[in-house]
Amino acid sequence: MTAAGLAGALTRLGDEVVRTRLPLQLPSADDARAAASQVATQLKDYILPRLADIEAPLLAVVGGSTGAGKSTLVNSLVGRVISPAGVIRPTTKSPVLVTSAPDEHWFADGRILPGLVRTTGTADRPNQLRIVVEPSLPDGLAILDAPDIDSIVSQNRELAAQLLDAADLWLFVTSAARYSDAVPWEFLSTAQARSAAMAVILDRVPPPAMEIVPHDLRRLMDAQGLAKTPIFTVPEATVDADGLLPDDSIAPVRSWLAGLAADASSRRKVVLQTLDGAVGAVAEKAALVANAADEQVTAVKDLQGDVEAAFREAGRQVSAQASDGSLLRGEVLARWHEYVGSTALGRLLDEKVSWLRDKLTSLIRGRPDGAEVKVAAEEGLRTLIVEAGEQACERAGAAWAAQPTGRALLEGHNDLTRASATLPAAAQRSIQAWQSDVLALVASEGAGKRQGARIAAAGVNGLGASLMLVIFASTGGITGAEIGVAGGTTVLAQRLLESIFGDEAVRKLAATAKANLIARIDDLLAAEQARYLSLLDELGVAPDASTMIDAAIDQVRAERATGYETPTPPPDPRGNPAPIGAPS
User: Fold this and answer.
1) Rounded CA gap, 569 and 53, in Å?
2) CB count in 10 Å sphere of residue 361
3) What contacts 503, CB < 8 A, 6 or more positions away?
4) pTM, whole model, 2 decimals?
């Protein structure tokens, strides 16, 4: 497999990481977001461009602490002032890249660090990369002077880290006074973790400390697993009029860099060491994102489960109260009594049904048509549904407020702790539509019946009201003296319906009407529940994000295991020779 195969796998990985959203502020979220950003930046700034041109010149980034002497070192290595040095911090505000003329095109076209604006003139902004062509610099090597890693300007610190991540070789500069500081060691540990090629330049070492400080630094580095990392010691010396160090003080560094530039095999070894380490680090960071994505999915499911449980309980309560006799109270009973005359019909309950049929017309004639029962039932159902919706919202809001992620979602959405203002009107419309369906059921069932006179006498409204009372049948929600009244009322309504349609038809009518009512209640509560679920949907947490990232990581690791062979590069259309070390 070629480097192109690995580049394709890494591109896929980067795409999956970038599209993964981590909106909930879980404990893992900040680190995972930072990791996702690092993956995207590392791929764009270094890995993919380097995979496309493994034989391109070596980029050595000079980084280090404030006042370590980085710019002075770079100027001295080049032999002239190309990066400002001074006592005012920070001195290096914009990075400066020094390259030979034949290698300039590798860095001028934006393949490496594409987010930085190229300039060959004065640069004073962090987003600018000043490119300086230096004839004395050997082909195959470029040196980049980066801002301080501990700069007082956060933007400079971030840029320094970004530039070091784009390096084939880290030249880490520290001083005799600051070599044991925490910040430099954090960067050294980062370089070690990703197996980056690195050298440490111990600068400004006073002559009396030349036998002590380098040995102590070596001891510390060996203890940190950096035994193979070379250390170059630059003694404290007086600079010349241009601010350059004596040639002999920086000769070992200059000679070592020139040797890498001249030897294609050594240069390639450095590049592949850093590149492979960067690929491995990207895979590890992507795994952090995948794990965090799993936690986001779990958290969303938990929040969703809290809401669904609250509304499921509300639906259960409404369904039970709509059929346990709770509605057979007060206004509904009063209007029903007005319709049928409870005392007269009550005396007929124990008589034969046939006798009841014979009396229906005379008993009902002249009484209200049942519409009042319908209105009373409508109000009772509406109140029941609105109260259930309020209770569900209170429970769901309380469940969310009990956990940090839920509290964060409720911020700016205080209306979620109560039912929507539109619920009462929506409930009324739905109940009225249900009652219309009930009347239509009764009318349809009575069409063509021989008992047309009785139906006409009872009225469709009255029979519809009777069917509603049958649905509100059980007396489980009624206590005391109400049981006899409501129970008798229910039996009376059922007898009335059976006397016209027959018991089997009444059972079917009741089952159909009740199912219709429960479906409408469920729809109303679902609309309230949707206010919560839509907020979760807007988070954009993809259930399969971690699966997609893990699959991309597996592909990267499989491609990485095959090596980094590259095809012979095509001729440069500008007439430049093939890069140093390219196969012929």
Assistant:
1) 9
2) 13
3) none
4) 0.78
